[in-house]
Amino acid sequence: EDADRLAAFEARVAADEFIEPKDWMPEAYRKTLVRQISQHAHSEIVGMLPEGNWISRAPTLRRKAILLAKVQDEAGHGLYLYCAAETLGTSRDEMTQALLEGRAKYSTIFNYPTLTWADIAAIGWLVDGAAIMNQVPLQRASYGPYARAMVKVCKEESFHQRQGYEAMMALAAGTPEQKAMAQDALDRWWWPSLMMFGPPDDQSPNSEQSMRWRIKRESNDALRQKFVDMTVPQAELIGLSLSDADLKWNKEKGGYDFGTPDWDEFFAVVRGEGPVARERMKARRDAWESGAWVRAAAMAHADKRAARFAA
Ligand code: 3HC
Q1: What pLDDT, on the 0 to 100 scale, is given for residue 302?
Q2: The predicted structure's pLDDT at residue 162
Q3: DSSP collapsed to 3 states, 18-44
Q4: Among 165, 223, 219, 156, residue whose Cα is nearest residue 189
Q5: How far apart are alpha carbons 308 and 172 in whole angstroms?
Q6: 241, 183 Cβ separation under 8 angstroms
Q7: Among positive and negative, which fits the CA dihedral 147, 151, 152, 155?
Q8: Pocket test for ligand 1, best of 32, 39, 214 (most atoms within 8 A of CB)
Q9: pLDDT exceeds cutoff 70 at 215
Q10: pLDDT (tens digit, 9 = 90+) per residue, 85-137?
Q11: Does ligand 1 lie within 6 Å of residue 193's CB atom?
Q12: Three-state SS for 150?
């Protein structure tokens, strides 16, 4: 009987139908969606930390206002995605505890430090650029709430990427010190940005099932290739160079050949050994503890209002 339901489910997915919260779905589908969507949400929230560090240090009021807007957007993306995951039967508390206890991941990219203002430009340009590359196909993910959440997120990510590239352009066209700062940031953020797309396809245990059930529409390596092809000309346009001796246009392929990311570094950062991983997790745990009174007050307020209306 479950075999029939699985066959019907797979036929719906193969016909590009959206699966909605109340539809029958294999437990493995529910489980992998909670895994991916909750970790996507954790990435958005943890991603606020490196950028938040520079809101009070932005070079102009304009840059400060733009960065403030972007960090607020990331918080909204996180809340949006937690809501999408909750439609699968998990709770905000369960997801938060999984993160704080190290049982859930967030994107490796946020375990690198933001050392100069140019890092904030590089994050907008490269990290949000990679995020867009990965999230555009997710707008057609088979799970309805996730796909719909991605439509709004992608619109805002485009602003994030544009403002980052524009800030990078300003630095690259600035004084020699500013251009050197931009180049240093590109050198430090290039390879970690390529790692955001996940391990190579032949070391990606979730891909086979996620591709079959149309959660993942393009493979890790395919999206990484698209990102390189789009971003290298952008770097060249503003006179910055990429720290990859193997980077070369391949006419037959119609794309760039490029070097191999340091997968040992990637898997170490996934394991929580990133340069500032401890600081990121401490910041999240401290926020959870110091926010306890706010949650208690909000619950008390909600109970009082409910009692007032019930009376
Ligand atoms: N950082 C941390 N963990 C990673 C990772 C990364 N960059 N790439 C892969 N992993 C983990 C996977 O989560 C998986 O571990 P798990 O089974 O415990 O979850 C393991 O490494 C093997 O990877 P797979 O390729 O088998 O896993 P997936 O099929 O899930 O593919 C993915 C990985 C492409 C990141 C996919 O999960 C995905 O598309 N997630 C949604 C997008 C997302 O999370 N983006 C975060 C970007 S940051 C962001 O959006 C903020 C921006 O606005 C600034």
Answers
A1: 96
A2: 97
A3: CECCCCCCCHHHHHHHHHHHHHHHHHH
A4: 165
A5: 60
A6: yes
A7: positive
A8: 39
A9: yes
A10: 999 999 999 999 999 999 999 999 999 999 999 999 999 999 999 999 999 99
A11: no
A12: helix
Characterize 161-195 residue by residue with b for buried, 16 or more Cβ atoms within 10 angstroms of its Cβ, and e for exposed. bebbbebbbebbeeeeebbebbbebbebbbbbbbb
DSSP-derived letter for residue 256 is E
Q: Is residue 130 within 8 Å of 214, Cβ to Cβ?
A: no
* Ligand 1 centroid from CA 76, angstroms: 19
Ligand 1: which of 43, 99, 136, 265 to mutate, judged by most atoms within 8 Å of the beta carbon? 43
Q: Is the CB of 156 under 6 A from ligand 1?
A: no
One-letter amino acid of 311: A
Where are any strands of DSSP class E within the chain? Answer: 248-250, 255-257
Name the β-bridge partners of 249.
256
What angle, 0 to 180 degrees and rounded to 10, lies between the N-to-C axes of helices 220-237 and 128-138? 140
* pLDDT tens-place string over residues 62-86: 999 999 999 999 999 999 999 999 9
Inform me whether the pLDDT recorded for 1 exceeds 70.
Answer: no
Rounded to whole angstroms, how far apart are CA atoms 57 and 116?
10
* Cα dihedral sign, 111-116-117-118: negative
Which tokens belong to 250? 């391949």
Pocket lining: 42 vs ligand 1, CB cutoff 6 Å: no
| Token pair of 274 as six digits | 């990133």
How much is the pTM?
0.96
The token pair at 194 is 């390529």
